[in-house]
Amino acid sequence: MMFTIQQLSVFSFFLSLFALVSALPLAVRDVFVPPVTYPHTGTEWKVGQHHNVTWDTSNAPANITNKSGRVVLAKGGGPHFFTLETEHPLVKDFDILLGRIEVKVPDVEPGSDYTIVLFGDSGHDSAEFTISN
After folding, report:
1. What is the Cα gyration radius of the chain?
2. Got the DSSP string for the chain?
3. What's the confidence (pLDDT) of residue 24?
4. Residue 11 phi, psi (nearest 5)
5. pLDDT for res 22
6. Which of 93, 107, 109, 114 is deepest in the core (most CB within 10 A)?
């Protein structure tokens, strides 16, 4: 296959442009994914009670793109959980840097495979815990 000088010049230009763009430093990422510290394994909540969900804010970046938090209850923890009431979180629109927020345990079926998912810039889930009547 033969290439013309013009085709090789265009190819060389785009290859050089790609190399230049690839060499530029990436912007500093400010995604904050704080680990949930409560509830933890062994925790039992009863339907209707109020509890503080807590998370570690000690490694928060200086500039966070999305400081608005949301807490969702999920069932079937681990990588295969399905989220309950994603359109109706337990609490939303709070400052993710608070480190804790009070929630009311909803009327759900008893189980030992519930998790709390904390959303802000990203999402992080708690250890599995139990909800009983």
Report:
1. 23
2. ----HHHHHHHHHHHHHHHHHHHSPPPPP----PPEEES-TT-EEETT-EEEEEE--TT--SS-S--EEEEEEEES-GGG-EES-TTS-SEEEEEGGGSEEEEEPPS---EEEEEEEEESSSEEE---EEEE-
3. 46
4. -60, -45
5. 54
6. 114
